[in-house]
Amino acid sequence: DQQVKQNSPSLSVQEGRISILNCDYTNSMFDYFLWYKKYPAEGPTFLISISSIKDKNEDGRFTVFLNKSAKHLSLHIVPSQPGDSAVYFCAASADNNNDMRFGAGTRLTVKP
Amino acid sequence: DVKVTQSSRYLVKRTGEKVFLECVQDMDHENMFWYRQDPGLGLRLIYFSYDVKMKEKGDIPEGYSVSREKKERFSLILESASTNQTSMYLCASSPQAAWYNEQFFGPGTRLTVL
């Protein structure tokens, strides 16, 4: 039972363009969302997060949008750079229990 | 530079062997986690610990046990390895009691069970 879904296993964009990675969740109790980035042969590293009291959080080239009514969040990378090529995981947790769930990941390739 | 280290990057074991995966963090974090990563399934939580000698089951604890005798060290044990435990194993740690904080991951151990 995957409560966090990333339906696109891969995404390819041109350098300089926008990358949009999507994530859907089913558990309405989730109130904190995180994106992690993973390079080959390394562990995931935290990228950006958002709590359910916000609908947008921005950090440099990275912006996360949260649509609670649709149970959907997205990560925007503008402009995309070749160094952004990695697997991106979406994760969600609920404050009232010890439960963090990860999506299956989306492999982003940014072409020069 | 904060670090989570895992004892092996690659490990090959035979069915029925007892396997120990070790994880050490140098950040004085209270919380530590073991995940496995499989294609199409993302990261699934096996066990976590929020204090020394404390442990909690995650989503898929069957076939695994854990040990946390010291704050900085969290061990994952496969009592009798089976081929369906072939996977990438990731250890993570996080500070404070609010465990949904950012987690810091180790590089992973790719375990193959023959």
Would you give an account of this structure?
- Chain A is mainly beta and 112 residues long.
- Chain A has no helices and eleven strands.
- Chain B has 114 residues and is an all-beta fold.
- Chain B has strands at residues 4-6, 10-13, 19-25, 31-38, 42-49, 56-57, 64-70, 73-78, 87-94, 104-105, 109-113.
- In chain B, strands 2, 4, 5, 6, 9, 10 and 11 form a seven-stranded mixed sheet that branches. A four-stranded antiparallel sheet of chain B has the order 1-3-8-7, with no helix packed on it.
- The mean pLDDT of chain B is 92.
- Classes of the chains: A mainly beta (112), B mainly beta (114).
- Chain A binds chain B through residues 2, 4, 6, 9, 32, 34, 36, 41-46, 49, 89, 91, 93-95, 98, 100, 102-105, and chain B through 4, 9, 35, 39-45, 48, 50, 56, 90, 92, 98-100, 102-108.
Helices and strands, with pairings:
The complex is a heterodimer of chains A (112) and B (114).
Chain A: E1 4-5, E2 10-14, E3 19-25, E4 32-38, E5 45-51, E6 56-59, E7 62-67, E8 72-77, E9 86-94, E10 99-102, E11 106-111
Parallel strand pairs in A: 2-11
Antiparallel strand pairs in A: 1-3, 3-8, 4-5, 4-9, 6-7, 7-8, 9-10, 9-11
Chain B: E1 4-6, E2 10-13, E3 19-25, E4 31-38, E5 42-49, E6 56-57, E7 64-70, E8 73-78, E9 87-94, E10 104-105, E11 109-113
Parallel strand pairs in B: 2-11
Antiparallel strand pairs in B: 1-3, 3-8, 4-5, 4-9, 5-6, 7-8, 9-10, 9-11
